[in-house]
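Complex record, two chains
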Amino acid sequence: MEKPDAVSSGDRAKRVRGLNQDFGAGVFLILLAAIAYLAAADLRLTLPSGLGPGTMPKATAALIAVFGLFFVIQGLTTLGARLESWSLRGPIFLLGAVVVFGATVRTLGLAVAGPAAVLIASLADRGTRLREILPFAVLLAAGCILLFRYALRQPIPVAPFWLGY
Amino acid sequence: MFDLVDKLALGFRTCWDVVWVVEPLTGAHVPVPINLLLCFLGCLIGTLIGVLPGVGPIATIAMLLPITYSLPPVGALIMLAGIYYGAQYGGSTTAILVNIPGEATAVVTALDGHQMALQGRAGTALAIAAIGSFFAGTVATLVIAALGQPMQKLALLFGPADYFGLMVLGLMLAVVLARGSVPKAIAMIIVGVLLSTIGTDLETGEERLTFGWSEVSDGIDFAVVAMGIFGFAEVLRNLEHPEAREVVRGRISGLLPTREELRQSAAPVLRGTVIGTILGILPGNGAVLGPFASYSLEKRLAADPSRFGKGAIEGVAGPESANNAGAQSAFIPLLTLGIPPNAVMALMLGAMTIKNIIPGPDVITKNPDLFWGMIASMWIGNVMLLVINLPLIGVWIRLLKVPYRLLFPAIILFCCIGIYSINNNPMDVYLTAGFGLFGYALIKFGFEATPLLLGFVLGRLMEEKMRQALQMSRGNFMTFLTEPLSATLLGFAVILVIIASLPTMRRGRHAAFAD
């Protein structure tokens, strides 16, 4: 289910001027545009034959900055939805699990990286119980090894330290 | 007319293509109808994952995209299409059984479908949804087949400048007809275009915005972006907004609707099909509007409107038909003009581009087997859905009871393996995690991810057409305004954005998406 539109929710008490969602969105876009523009700084805008490689990145970055400015001004001058708080638990464990998977899959294989990713990711939810998730992680990884390595024949390492592949 | 029959026959032949496989036990060569098998697998896996709580069609396709990478183009697209309507149907199943619409188009189905389930008529509701969808799918398939060629001839008249204009108009339509803030959506399109410029420049071979990172010199893989912002970011959002789910208890009996119920549903199915097909062709969330329009029409036409919301079978039959018809006719702008009208079609476009097929007017002439094979497979897929879904309802109910705390780590693992296996490169996995964080930030700042994806898949082509057009006009930007076709298209795009940002229209849009 999609969450209700911030504007249509119409909860006046939760709407603020200044440091609201629009303001945050604007700052986010301006930062993004600045990074992109700096990265594209050396690219030429035009070539003898026409537009150069730099036109599109620079033009889009400039437009994004304009939109960013628009949202910053809108945020400062009109009422908008409050900035949502960021949860740390979710991104840290979930994306941490993905990074750990990436770091271990080649050297330790799916037999280690699989359960590790599942276990770390599961910490993103407070309701996780070790007694439940531990056997689930092992079974799931075993299933994935069978499916991806043996059924779909993907060249994904299983357990290089033990099987040699 | 005969031409059309001819072409459809080609499509069905493509679906029946066989490969000879050595059977391991006896060593005999056996024919395997590979495309048919992939269609079946797609429908099955699509339904399976679509039924899982909290996983909609977009996330399903994004997750399964890497699996199709190793398949031949026709098979890959047939399978993806199967996954799509499988997931779509899975969404209706959850709407009826748990009152949680798996996706926006099933919201209406939940209204009366879940009431029917509470009255012990879940089987009937699911059956009528399947039958209505099947009929709608059949009609929509024929419409696609009939409209394909004229649309293609139209598109062949387009020069580079006109094509650029068409893409801009398509993107603006997608923004205006979707929910959420219009300026935010336009900003997201531009961010998507910016992301698409990462990688080697086609003309000069210079590296752009790669920060010296060789992994992205070919551009960011489409699956990486899609899985990051639709897979990981969705999971993060779901973890913060847990949903209570109450699966219908008790035995589900009486699958087949009675003669009376079928008679009641016949007209709503017909009307829903027409509405859905027409709205589905529109860019943006035209396909989403179909079920809503059908529901309010049925309610208005009903002799006793008070039955609606309390388990009226017309309230399931009409919207479900509209839903499926729209899901299918949304392929028309993609296959003929190369413009994806929504996120799912953007994923399809991405999958085609990976296979070096640029959707658009050339597809029908250059890859007739692909175009017609896919169309025929849609119809076959609808038959398969009917076959898969009705007997397997018990399995779906059990799947619905899987708690999210077990589900989401499994989703993460599948995504990791899928991404790693694209290039067997851990860098892709890290990059996807980065896009997950990016997508999470987008959610927090109130941005929708769909326009970004549309911009990303169309970005490269837009830049190419723009540069071609300017080369032909020797650098004169006025070419976009002096070419009559492109001027008209761009004019429409501007008018559209102006109308959408008028205060009265803004209120109208909110009302249209509110219920």
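Note: Residues 2-514 of chain B form one domain.
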